[in-house]
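Thread: Newbie trying to understand structure tokens

Hi all, I'm a second-year student working on a class project, and my supervisor (Dr. K.) asked me to get a predicted structure for one chain before our next meeting. I've only ever worked with sequences, so writing a 3D structure as a token string is new to me. If someone could post the tokens and maybe explain what I'm looking at, I'd be very grateful. Here's the chain:
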Amino acid sequence: MLTPSEVSAKLKIQPSTLRKYSALLEQEGIQFQRTHKNARLYTDSEYIAIESIIAAVHSGKKSLEEAVIEASKGLKKSVSVAPRERDSDDIAAATLEEVKRLKNQLQQQEERQKERDMMFVEILEKMQKKIDQIEEQQKQLLAPVPEELELKAPESSSQEEESEPETVTPKKDTRSLWARIWNK
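---
Reply by user tm_fold:
Sure, no problem. This is what the structure looks like when written as tokens:
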């Protein structure tokens, strides 16, 4: 906190000019903290606001009234002002808004996560069905082939039997694919 004499010295203005600017800011709703002797105390934000009033007036671009109104609006918006009675409501409102915003953001994230989870479960179910289909196909491929009924050739004459050697139908191998590959 700065005293009026410190502010006057830093800004190189008369104490009466500082009182004038301070009174104009108070008319716009800015409340300064005061000492036990009722002297104003200035925060860094209030010091900067008075400094901006002086700069605006000296530049000739704004009138004193316009500069004071603009500075007071800046002070009212500033959350970095030291907490006082007038600021506690602003800080509480800003905090409440931030909490609401964060709560809404969290709710949106939870909804997106639920959607992702549902999609993940759906994909896993599809994959499981595909795995089941593949396993069923493998079982069918590896299942032993039932022996086909051997067709008996019509009996031929004894002469033909003597001239032709008897053909032996090989027996079907019923071992699994891997057993046949590794010959076990």
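A couple of things are worth pointing out once you decode it. DSSP finds seven helices and two strands in the chain. The radius of gyration is 48 Å. Feel free to ask follow-ups in this thread.
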